[in-house]
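> Could you send the Sugar O-acetyltransferase prediction when you get a chance?

Sure thing. Input:
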Amino acid sequence: MALSEKEKMLSGQPYRPGDPELQAAMAAAKHWMVRYNAALAESPTVRRELLRERLGEVGDGAVIRPPFHCDYGSHIRLGAGVFLNYNCVILDVAEVSIGEGTQIGPAVQIYAADHPRDPQARASGLELARPVRIGRNVWIGGGAIVLPGVSIGDGAVVGAGSVVTRDVPAGATVVGNPARVVPPRD
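Output:
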């Protein structure tokens, strides 16, 4: 039996993002984002309830400051006490999990969406999805970009403006483009 485009997307196989089922899900997410982003002046409790309407999981005390943008929302999992500052973007075509106590600065971008490297495959309109996993008590500085398929270990620090192209070990500090591990500082 052939897989749906959504099933392909979630399993990491090449998929067609223009599929009507996927387009309908993205349209629903857009309508939700309009509501959520208009709730900036609402209490954290009201905003958390809105998050629980759309996101796959929202732990107690999790906060996302609007504006916030995502593809679907339903593939995002936030642990307890997670904080995302203003203007974050999560392209959640695959699962994006963020562990408890993690703090994410403004304008951080997390991409699970990827494209084929082969020009012919890319020209055909196929896309790929690779999950992103961010551990507990991670700090990601403002303007950082986390690329598809990356895992960031517990307690890691990602410097502001860094581009994370590969996995980050637990407890490590990475900076730069591409992000590289730096020695610990006192």
